[in-house]
Amino acid sequence: MSPPGKTVKVVKTEAEWRKHLTPEQYYVTRDHGTEHPFTGPHLHEKRPGVFACVCCGAPLFDAQTKYESGTGWPSFYAPIGPDAVSEHTDRALFFIRRTEVRCASCDAHLGHVFPDGPRPTGRRYCMNGTALTFTPSSDA
């Protein structure tokens, strides 16, 4: 893990990513795909722990910020820290403007963030479960 406030960039070739990831993980994280709702891993995960990037292992979300949004994807109201994710304008759906969320360390596509989440942030980080790994806390 990098020191607070310092994101270490992970760079690999397309061939290296393909070797490291399953075809579905590659499609979601490197090709900016989306898994079908209610089909990805971690949707019903409720244990304490940390969700990390499937590509590089960077910590992204604390399970304490996960909530049931009813959308079919794991949802969080905040990333684990201010430098964990980066946000980018996404105009892939033509006239609909969305905010894409990527891993700040390796630029893996994780999902999108919307302004309809719960308190305290009012944000809904709607993530592809395929883009995440989960490590339960030792007390889980």
Strand content: 25-35%
| Distance separating the two termini | 22 Å
Report the biggest beta sheet as strand number plus sense, adding barrel if it closes.
6 strands, antiparallel
Oligomer: single chain
The CATH homologous superfamily is termed Peptide methionine sulfoxide reductase
Order of helices and strands: HHEEEEEEEEE
At the fold tier of CATH, the topology name is Metal Binding Protein, Guanine Nucleotide Exchange Factor, Chain A
Please give the radius of gyration in angstroms.
14 Å
Highlighted features:
140 residues, mainly beta, Metal Binding Protein, Guanine Nucleotide Exchange Factor, Chain A, six-stranded antiparallel beta sheet, three-stranded antiparallel beta sheet, 2 helices, globular
